[in-house]
Design a protein that fits this description.
This protein has 464 residues and is an alpha/beta fold. It is 31% helix and 23% strand. Strands 1, 2, 3, 4, 5, 16, 17, 18 and 19 form a nine-stranded mixed sheet that branches. The longest helix has 18 residues, at 217-234. It is globular. Bound molecules: N-(aminocarbonyl)-beta-alanine and zinc ion (ZN) (2 copies). This is Dihydropyrimidinase. Keywords: Hydrolase, Metal-binding.
Length: 464
């Protein structure tokens, strides 16, 4: 047995802040105590965390490692992407396995297990993208829930790719209600958006900024409203992914006020970036093309407010990186051909901590939206998302006073640009433990591919 002692840090969870020593035995946290009381504890390794925060490792509930999309493949593999996550203080990801049209859920899930198995630096789980809702795939949902793949993403966007019509969505929601599977919705009216794309291109509006214009905030709000109503008809909970528009947030808030189980996540890009970035000169704006799109900066205040009121419960990254050279440039002359997605798995914890520094959220809320709630939402709590006896020793020792300047020169994601190039933030990961092993320490990476294991998840823990 290996004993590790983390001494004298400020332990922050979603519910508490206390100066404590944390004792880890092998992969698990076994005890926390006041440093004076813990003086007699012995350990093989003692880590001094004086002046540091000691927080649960981040749980990023929305990533797309090596995802084939938009005629290319997301640049981070499970190996590079999970390593970058570890550098940024995230110790669990939930990635999206994909059913192909004409294929089964089983084939899709097996393929994603094949990509991830033996390659991850940190623990990982899967949601399943339902790209082809039919009798067979609906039947398969129950078996997947039994194997710990307890959430399913559907798309109201991307006709001809992942799109499901309202009938398919309703059937999936009904099956979700029956099996305990949580339906996650990409809520944008893709049929209307495609009309606007065609009209924009016909007018010669080909620059990246038009991506934001055609993906109108009201088309996010309309789809969010429709998704929630379909969920109510089915008697199912619903989780709206990557919410970016104030008007969509209002739909979630209204449903929650009426007592419905409507949940939503937003992403750091919607809190820190805007249409000003999409409109950068030349083709630069392509770096910021994702869906839902970035919105005018006024939306940011509403999103921070939603995080404070819990109408937004989770911040995930939607990490889906494409290099500027060789991938994003597929859309020169036609914004609709720019692969949709941004890098972010490494920067989420730091950007949200900046939200603490800027006074938008408290330290405990930081941990709640980045670790505890995603763990509960997707059936991983208290194994993940907290520091408590019995939980996995996924622990980040975080220096709240250190500053850093974000850059593609120094980040670890396999992508040739940073959305936050040159931006300074306060707070920095010092040490990361994943199930008791130190995998990042003081600027040195000590983990390896294969350290991470697949996590079979329980169903959503907010519905009991
Ligand atoms: O632009 C995005 N969000 N790309 C990834 C796919 C998705 O819709 O989440
Ligand atoms: Zn999506
Ligand atoms: Zn996504």
């Amino acid at each position: 047995m290996t004993r590790t002692l983390i001494r004298n840090g400020l332990v922050i969870t979603a519910t508490d802040e206390l100066t404590a020593d944390v004792l880890v035995e092998d992969e698990k946290v076994v005890a926390l105590a006041d440093p004076a009381l813990a003086e007699s504890w012995s350990a093989d390794t003692a880590i001094d965390a004086t002046g540091m925060y000691v927080v649960p490792g981040g749980v990023d509930a929305h990533t797309h490692m090596e995802m084939p999309f938009g005629g290319t493949t997301a640049a981070d593999t499970f190996e590079t992407g999970t390593r970058a996550a570890a550098w940024g203080g995230t110790t669990t990801i939930i990635d999206f396995a994909i059913q192909s049209v004409g294929g089964s859920l089983r084939e899709g899930l097996d393929a994603w297990h094949g990509k991830a198995d033996g390659n991850c630096a940190i623990d990982y789980a899967f949601h399943m993208i339902l790209a082809d809702v039919n009798e067979g795939s609906l039947k398969e949902m129950e078996a997947l829930v039994g194997e710990g793949v307890t959430s399913f993403k559907l798309f109201m966007a991307y006709p001809g790719v992942f799109y499901s019509d309202d009938g398919k969505i309703l059937r999936s929601l009904q099956k979700g209600a029956e099996t305990g599977g949580l339906i996650m919705m990409h809520a944008e009216n893709g049929i209307a958006i495609d009309v606007l794309v065609e009209q924009a291109l016909a007018k010669g509006h080909t620059d990246p900024r038009y991506h934001g214009e055609v993906r109108h905030a009201l088309l996010e709000a309309e789809a969010t409203h429709r998704a929630i109503k379909l969920a109510q008809v089915a008697g199912a909970p619903i989780y709206i992914v990557h919410l970016s528009a104030t008007q969509a947030l209002a739909q979630v808030a209204a449903a929650r006020d009426e007592g419905y189980n409507a949940f939503a996540e937003t992403c750091p890009q919607y809190l820190f970036l805007s249409t000003d970035d999409l409109g950068r000169p030349g083709f630069e704006g392509a770096k910021y093309v994702c869906s839902t799109p970035l919105r005018p900066a006024e939306h940011q205040a509403a999103l921070w407010r939603g995080l404070r009121t819990d109408d937004l419960s989770v911040v995930s990254t939607d990490h889906c990186p494409f290099c500027f050279k060789g991938q994003k440039d597929m859309g020169i002359g036609d914004f609709s051909k720019i692969p949709n997605g941004l890098p972010g798995v490494e920067t989420r914890m730091d950007l949200l901590h900046q939200g603490v520094v800027d006074g938008h959220i408290s330290r405990r809320r930081w941990i709640e939206i980045a670790s505890a709630t995603p763990a509960k939402m997707f059936g991983l709590y208290p194994r993940k998302g907290t520091i408590a006896p019995g939980s996995d020793a996924d622990i980040v020792i975080y220096d709240p006073a250190a500053t850093q300047v974000h850059s593609a020169q120094t980040h670890h994601m396999a992508v040739d640009y940073s959305c936050y190039e040159g931006r300074e933030t306060t707070g920095k990961v010092r040490t990361v433990l994943s199930r008791g092993r130190v995998i990042v320490d003081g600027g040195e990476y000590r983990g390896k591919a294969g350290d991470g294991t697949f996590l079979s998840r329980d169903t959503c823990q907010y519905l009991r």
